[in-house]
Amino acid sequence: MTAPEPLSLRPLAPYEDRLLSALAFFRAQRSRETQAQHCLAMYLRQSESRIMAEVSFYARSIGQDPRALLELIYTDPDRAESLIADWSNCQIGDVFEPDRPPSVE
Asked: Which of helix, strand or coil describes residue 42?
């Protein structure tokens, strides 16, 4: 199994950047990067049921187990997108990134 490249995130908007700095300051003066990682992890754990509901919908639609699709999205997102596109006749990226030029098959 191949892990994807590490995430590289764009800078936060000024207000959120200040909130993150304050949160890091009050958490034993953690680095902003460490606090950002903790915030993202907390958000993901709190949102697991919503995220997995979406994964489960697509997994059932393409005849896969939700955990298998989750792993496929992690290890081979192009293959996951292809399976979903074959079922739905549209690319996921075109639906959720409307400013992205449409994919050409």
From this structure: helix
Give the pLDDT means over successive 10-residue stretches in the chain (105 positions). Answer: 80 92 88 90 95 96 97 94 92 71 54
Separation between Cα atoms, residue 62 and residue 58, nearest integer Å: 6
Count of C-beta atoms within a 10 Å radius of residue 70: 17
Helix (H, G, I), strand (E, B) or coil at 63: coil
Q: How many helices and strands, by DSSP H and E, does the chain display?
A: 6, 0
Residues with Cβ < 8 Å from 39, sequence gap 6 or more? 20, 23
Rounded to 5°, the CA angle 92-97-102 comes to: 70
Measure the CA–CA gap between 105 and 97, rounded to whole angstroms. 17
